[in-house]
UniProtKB/TrEMBL annotation:
Protein name: MFS transporter
Domain Major facilitator superfamily (MFS) profile: 15-426
Gene3D superfamilies according to UniProt: MFS general substrate transporter like domains
Major subcellular location class: membrane
Localisation: Membrane
Transmembrane intervals: 12-33, 53-72, 79-97, 109-127, 139-160, 166-185, 221-239, 259-277, 289-307, 313-332, 344-362, 402-422
Family annotation (Pfam families): MFS_1 (PF07690)
Entry membrane topology: Multi-pass membrane protein
Length: 437
């Protein structure tokens, strides 16, 4: 290996580390709300539906802002990243000083805009740092932040919130991002498509690019499968700490950290295993990425239902571990499939439109919908009963338990779509896995 190659690989590793750490902060700040949702609901006297809207509004603005990824195909990506990180960090800090439910909603909305700018742009830089034979593994490392960062959000939120209150959680969570926004602005941005076959950027507008993307069958299959998974994962990420507190009597200080620890272990194992297996299976078959992801989603569905039937906490966390491991198998493979099915100059837009779709049809609604199902089920359980304090608590627990169980349906559907897509792509790889001419 030449000195020049070694220097470049060292630089690529440094950029990957910076982007991955920022991705950790991304998911930490997203999940801080989950651990202190009950505290916020009590302070502002909110229903489950209103509490769920705090989670959903973040996703809604994240979804609306996702087309910012189109700018990443035309301007300096590191500047878009730095601006997005700075915005979401300031929004997190501002949440600590919210004086009303409405002000907190505004902070959550700004958080979504900032994180959308980052999430749609960073993967295209990683795709230009590493060749196709390494991308699934490198993207898996980058997306380790999804389970681990989320878990750290649960843990930090639970511990800080228990001892210092929910406002301190957002105050501590927002500060590190300002430092990494400055670091992001100083990274050396690689040339677009440097490790891919040359492809000419044709003239046209955003809608021209959109047309090319949606005509790619692999992109469509990927997006449908991810949307179904995102519906469930996004909903559970908000409601599981509350579920553990309400249904199993855990404290804020233990529910978030314990669930976070399970998520760290399962997410690390699932994401890294999926990245390694995905590259191997894809080398054998054009549908390998989708096959592995589909199997993981289908097998996780019954475990989600089983989780809600567990009365023993140890058994519950064992089931949760395997359900999460299977869910996170798809992280590296599906993102590698996404960057591989469009030309290099279109990747930012492909991620932007993919993110828009998976959240618009996924967790933008699921977080509020879970709260709505919980409220409606609670009301149904109380029909014909005297609404004593104990009866209301039992109805609240039963309602949320039912709402959590129903989230198994979307991941089952998503897994079946990916398995169908894997077979279809394996039969005609040249026409389906690559972008149209």
């Amino acid at each position: 290996m030449s000195d020049l190659t070694q220097t470049w690989r060292g630089r690529a590793a440094a950029i990957l580390i910076v982007l991955t750490v920022i991705n950790f902060l991304n998911y930490i700040d997203q999940m801080l709300l989950s651990s202190v949702l009950e505290q916020i609901k009590l302070e502002f006297t909110l229903s489950d539906t209103e509490g769920g809207l705090l989670g959903s509004l973040f996703v809604i603005t994240y979804t609306i802002a996702a087309p910012l990824g189109y700018l990443g195909d035309r301007f300096k990506r590191k500047n878009i990243i730095a601006g997005g990180v700075a915005l979401w960090s300031v929004a997190t800090l501002a949440a600590a000083f919210a004086r009303s439910y409405e002000e907190l909603l505004v902070c959550r909305a700004l958080l979504g805009i900032g994180e959308a700018a980052y999430a749609t742009t960073a993967p295209s830089i990683i795709a230009d740092l590493y060749g196709p034979d390494e991308r699934s593994r490198k993207l898996a490392l980058f997306y380790v932040a999804t389970p681990v960062g989320s878990a750290l959000g649960f843990i930090l939120g639970g511990l800080i919130g228990e001892h210092f209150g929910w406002r301190a959680v957002f105050l501590v969570g927002g500060l590190p991002g300002l430092l990494f926004a400055a670091l992001a602005a100083r990274i050396h941005e690689p040339e677009r498509g440097r490790l891919d076959p040359a492809s000419e950027r044709p003239p046209g507008t955003f809608f021209t690019a959109l047309g090319r993307i949606v005509r790619t069958p692999a992109w469509r299959i990927n997006t449908v499968g991810l949307a179904m998974m995102t519906f469930t994962v996004g909903g559970l990420s908000l409601w599981m700490p509350t579920y553990l507190e309400r249904v199993h009597g855990m404290s804020t200080a233990s529910a978030g950290p314990v669930f976070g620890a399970v998520t760290v272990l399962a997410g690390l194992c699932g994401t890294l295993l999926g990245g390694s297996l995905g590259d191997r299976l894809q080398a054998r078959s054009a549908g390998g990425y989708f096959w592995l992801s589909g199997v993981g989603l289908v097998l996780s569905a019954p475990l989600i239902v089983l989780l809600t039937r567990m009365e023993d906490l140890v058994a519950l966390f064992v089931v949760a571990f395997f359900a999460e491991l299977l869910l996170f198998l798809n992280t590296g493979p599906l993102n590698a499939a996404l960057v591989g099915c469009v030309p290099a100059w279109l990747r930012g837009t492909a991620f932007a439109v993919n993110i828009f779709c998976i959240h618009a049809f996924g967790d933008a609604l699921s977080r509020t919908l879970i709260g709505y199902v919980s409220d409606r089920a609670k009301a149904a359980y109380l029909v014909g009963q005297v609404p004593t304090e104990s009866a209301v608590r039992a109805a609240e627990s039963a309602g949320l338990n039912l709402a959590i169980a129903t989230t198994a349906i979307p991941v089952l559907l998503g897994g079946l779509v990916l398995l169908w897509g894997a077979r279809r792509i394996a039969r005609a790889p040249d026409g389906l896995m690559t972008h149209p001419g």
